[in-house]
Amino acid sequence: MKTVADTPISVESSPDGGTLYRFPTRPKGKFAGLFAVLFGAVFAGLFGFSAVSIVLNGIGSSNPTSWTGWLFPLLMLMFLSVFVLFGSASVLSGLTALFGRTSVRVTRDELIATDRVLILRYRRRQPLDPIRRFEVNVGTTSTNGGAKKPMENFAFLMAQTDAFAQAVAAKRKPKGGVRAVLQSVIAWGYPRDWLRPLADELAQHCNAESHRSLVIDDEGSAPVGVIETVGSDDPDADEAGRPYVPERPPNATADVTELHPGLSITLPARGIRRAGKGTLGFAFIWLSFTAIFTVSDGPLYSSNPGVWPALGITGLFAALWAVGLGVFISALNAGKRRGVIDVIGDTLLVTKQSLFKPTQFEWTADQLDDVRLGPTGTEINGKPINCLLVTPKDGSPVKLFAEREDNEIRWLAALLRRELALHQR
Hints:
There is one protein chain. The protein is of the alpha+beta class. Helices cover 38% and strands 29% of the residues. The strands form 4 sheets. Strands 1-2-3-4-5 form a 5-stranded antiparallel sheet. A hairpin with a 5-residue loop joins strand 13 (347-353) and strand 14. Helix 7 runs antiparallel to helix 9 (307-336). The protein is flat. 27% of the residues are buried.
């Protein structure tokens, strides 16, 4: 079995009697890091330039006796600052991939992970006692939404408590939310064959009497172990080898009718508020701010900036209106979308209807590679939006019913895989 000594990770004794593991830079992060830096720099630069122009041409020349003279430019400045921060975060993540180094220190009762990039430090501490297992999770990638493939050179090492592991198994947010997830990460972006030996050694540290007293009690507490996972896909079969189908989620609205042979699934419209997944509120906020900026008689118009600045301002407002209206129409379309999924023999028929003309798809089981919950490639507030991803053996994957909840899509996909016997093909 491979050990930490067989990897580029260096092992040292720390002054407090613990063990220090030092990682080199991430071996496969150069291209992604460079892209993130360039994208973030351009993104932050464009919106930053607009913000500076507002300060110089708007707030700087406003009439202090008129509240409209400074309020609207100030609101616009705050609005643009969000995009500047997003671009800056992209630059920072790119620099971390290019130059960042991770170190992990184990003391008698604590595990300390530190990420270093240039002069910045991000430290995460975890006491050893609550840790119940270490997970090595390999990232996945897909081309054009196709089947996911593991990225052996991009893995995460996480330390999980019992409560955290139970939340992950139940596919719900752990207590503490994003902060708890970040605190659990020991190292990220390194190859799997580096992190697995380290996970084994950290588990030995946790189980060693010199670091903590582990007692196997009547409730069955077990020594700290190590697991490996790839992405977050559901299994194709249960422990008995039967096609895996989770229980019907309590919030599912799909109506399933058993046919002989096959089944028919009717998907009613979910409504704009639920199907929009936050996009409707975002659209209203965006359009409200855009309307205020458009109708205001603030310094951006009253200062007579000239032809080219005026065209630039008009183009900016046109883009803002286009984005807001596009998001609103998308939310309305998602709220009105309904569909029917039929499995007749070995044929899968899908019909979806929304604001526009109905769309139909048809495949035989022999033409399909997979049907499961998959990413659309879109995120809202940092949360990825998933869909029913139908992957043919030939052609591009088809993304369906992204307006529905993940647990319902996961359940429907399992039903379809079982009915079409895809796990046997």
